[in-house]
Amino acid sequence: MGSIETSRPAACPACAVAPAAEELAEGRAPDKAQLFLSLPTIHCAGCIAAVERALNAMPGVREARVNLTLKRVAVEAEPDTTADDLIAVLDRVGYEAHELDPGIIAATATDKAGRDILMRIAVSGFAMMNVMLLSVAVWSGASDATRDMFHWISAAIALPAIAFSAQPFFRNALSVLKHARLNMDVPISLAILLAAGMSLYETAQHGPHAYFDAALSLTFFLLAGRYLDHRTRAVARSAAEELAALEVPRALRRAADGQEETVAISQIAVGDVVLVKPGARVPVDGVVAEGQSEIDRSLLTGETLPAFAGPGARLSAGEVNLTGPLSVTVTAAGEDSSLHRMADLVAVAESSKNRYTSLADRAARIYAPGVHLLALAAFLGWLAGTGGDVRLALNIAVAVLIITCPCALGLAVPAVTTAASGRLFKKGMLIKDGTALERLAEIDTVVFDKTGTLTLGTPEPTNLGNHPRRELEIALALAGPSAHPLAKALAEAARKAGIHPAPLTDVHEVPGHGVEGRLGGQIVRFGRAAWLGAEAGPETAAWLRVGQGAPIEFTFADRLRPGAQEAVAALRARGLEVRLLSGDAEAPVADLAGRLGISEWIAGALPEEKAEAVAALSRGGRRVLMVGDGLNDTAALAAAHVSISPATALDAARVASDIVLLGQDLAPIAEAATTAKKATRRIHENFAIAALYNMIAVPIALAGFATPLAAALAMSASSITVSLNALRLR
Amino acid sequence: MEMLAYLIPISLSLGALGLAAFFWALRSNQFDDPEGDSRRILNDEWDDHPKP
Q: Residues A617, A619, A622, A627: what is their CA dihedral angle, to the nearest 10 degrees?
């Protein structure tokens, strides 16, 4: 409901004439709801049509439009439509959907920076083609007055175009020079400026060579590289922000007059009473004031077994309430909650990761000073060799700068990264960090979390076959109406096995304990071990007791996430060591490790121990990929060389990880490792191509044989080769 | 050679026209979903009459 548009101007005396303000004054409700849903599984024309048809057929929906590039749908609907209704409809037609925060999306919808670069690309492309047209005439023999006129027209087109298009390079170069450092933008700016300046001077002096086309094509190709780079990062950033918004932060507060109101988490203060309905996530840290229930702590601790919560029990933000409604007195909200305190642990681990330098940066560090020294040497050498001919020496130095200008280098990395992350996005993986692919290519160890990562966190009964039909019928009758995950799992499995519920009367839930009913004159109960007087075993279990008979155990195991088996097998087949690190009890961890064939596992690990285990592996010289979803994994995710979390993970875990899995399937992880290796190989190849081209072209330029035509040919050829090599990745 | 006096301005203004068209397309959000737009032509929902 909070997604209803509220971006209206505030009522004020000065704007009383504005119709919007009048509406506000009359207290009229907003006339439409703008909702956004993330659709991780859509991929084709059929999906677009199916989603739009399903949504448009819903009463209350005015218009639904899918954006396949961003895998989301924008829906304009009547104000009382909620995202949950839409998600239910999409679920029925077979598409997974998550709600996104419309506020954040509105802010990132128009990609201003991307458009800015596109405009500059268009202008430099337009100018480049026109100048090239005139240059062809000069190269094919125009001379004297005609050549001069063509050069002047070229100057008239090129100079304003460069002044507009090359601004991003100039700005960056200026800012690093201020800090007395060098990056790729310095030789780029220098080459563009010197080429344009020298050409203008040559034109005025009726000289034969002008490099306007070279200056423009440099700008054009490098802007193209810059745009690819920007798009990869912008898509990742906006998607990460949206994911952060997956859990729209709201809470149900009980006001002083006893009324319930939905408010933003930021408005909750310590001492407020918050209602947490069954099935909802606890939004704050607090103490239970009223009610009894069971609490699912799996996201925070990795425990699969729900814990009992009655008055006085402490709850942490992020836990899920299962069976009964609870009123919680807030002890910490927002920034102070345990969720946020975990962020400190993450910040420490993150700072060590920031030291990673990308391949592009390492190349630029060697390349930029080298280019300047070479051009300077050419200038000084020719100055000495010709006995002081400044014009010739400067011409050759400019030719060297243009030829060595990192056109191919500027495209070498972004072209590959764009191709690779596009490929992974299609498979349902989102690269959040620019260097994540390079780091992923280096891994030799994979550490998995258990609950919620290798497993779905939903249980599955394991010993149904051991029970007589009669007991199953009673259990189904009791479990059927309950929302508890164990009960739901049992009911589902029993129905699938063709069991019909026994005719019970007076079935009711006893929050925090289980379900009770009557069978004839006997009381039957299904629930926690302690409630039924049974001895709790090591396994996850629920118990059934008929009258005064002995309690009967139903054991459960966590259901494997689809693709988990394949992912682990494929990673091992690639020679990577796979480990399991869980906060859960030993028995379920050992069982899962056995099922997946993982020999190295640790159970009962606290969050700090997880982070320490990963850090110890790193100290031992290993490059660790951490895959986890819980709050207890967050620090370990940040400490690892590279990390992946599923979209169902808590905000904190997704923020700490470099790659997010959008769908349920784990199988793409192994594929991502392969793609990353391939991508890094392509980047190295591209560097080699650029170097090879420089080795051929630089001696020619140094010898003074480089003409504007040769520069244009060599530059285009190398840029196109590098881009095509990157495209081979698909 | 006097033809150049006409031809160069004509070629430049035609190019500028293309540039202006691109700017218009960019500003009217036509590059927001390149992937989806390329698939939408396969959709047969509005084949008989345009979307109302």
A: 50
Contact in structure between A516 and A528 (CB atoms under 8 Å): no
Q: Where are the alpha helices (DSSP H) in A93-184?
A: 102-108, 112-139, 144-165, 167-178
In sequence order, the 6+-apart residues with CB closer than 8 A to the CB of A420 are A431, A437, A675, A676, A678, A679, A729
Asked if residue A638 lies in contact with residue A349, where contact means CB atoms within 8 angstroms, the answer is: yes
* Domains along the sequence of chain A with CATH: 13-100 (3.30.70.100), 250-336 (2.70.150.10), 460-559 (3.40.1110.10)
- For the annotated catalytic residues of A, the residue numbers are 449
DSSP 3-state of A72:
strand
Where on the phi/psi map is residue A27: left (φ > 0), alpha (ψ -120 to 50), or beta? left
CA distance A69 to chain B (A): 5
Length of chain A: 730
- Give the span between the Cα atoms of A77 and A257, in whole angstroms: 33
Is A115 in the B-facing interface, judged by CB distances under 8 Å?
yes
Which amino acid, residue A109?
Answer: A
Residue B9 in domain: yes
Whether A20 contacts chain B with CB within 8 A: no
Q: Closest by alpha carbon to A528, among A118, A520, A537?
A: A537
Alpha-carbon gap: B48 to the closest alpha carbon of chain A (Å) = 16
CB of A142 less than 8 A from some CB of B = no
Q: Name residues of chain B where pLDDT drops below 50.
A: none
DSSP 8-class letter at A303 = -
Question: Domain residues for B26?
Answer: 3-30
Q: Give percent of chain A above pLDDT 70.
A: 86
CB contact (8 A) between residue A119 and residue B23: yes
Give the model's pLDDT for residue A14.
Answer: 37
Each residue's pLDDT tens digit, A585-629: 787 788 888 888 888 888 888 777 888 888 898 888 888 999 988
E strand or H helix at A449, and its extent? none
What percent of chain A has a predicted confidence (pLDDT) above 90? 6
Q: How close A44 comes to chain B (CA, Å)?
A: 7
| Residue B16: closest C-alpha in chain A | A126
Mean pLDDT of chain A: 79
Number of compact structural domains in chain B:
1
Q: Which long-range contacts (CB under 8 A, 24 or more apart) does A256-264 make?
A: A262/A1, A262/A2, A264/A2
Among A67, A130, A146, beta carbon nearest to B36: A67
The residue written with tokens 């504005």 in the block is: A18
Query: What pLDDT score does A340 carry?
Result: 59
Q: Please give the Cα distance from A640 to A623 (Å, whole number).
A: 8
**Interface residue ranges in chain B relative to chain A, Cβ cutoff 8 Å:** 1, 8, 11-12, 15-16, 18-19, 22-23, 26-27, 29, 31-36, 39-40, 42-43, 45
For range A238-253, the mean pLDDT:
58
Q: Do A130 and B34 touch (CB under 8 A)?
A: no
A67·B33 Cβ contact <8 A:
yes
Helices and strands (H, E) in chain A, number of each type: 25, 26
In a domain, B22, yes or no: yes
State yes or no: pLDDT of A540 exceeds 80. Answer: no
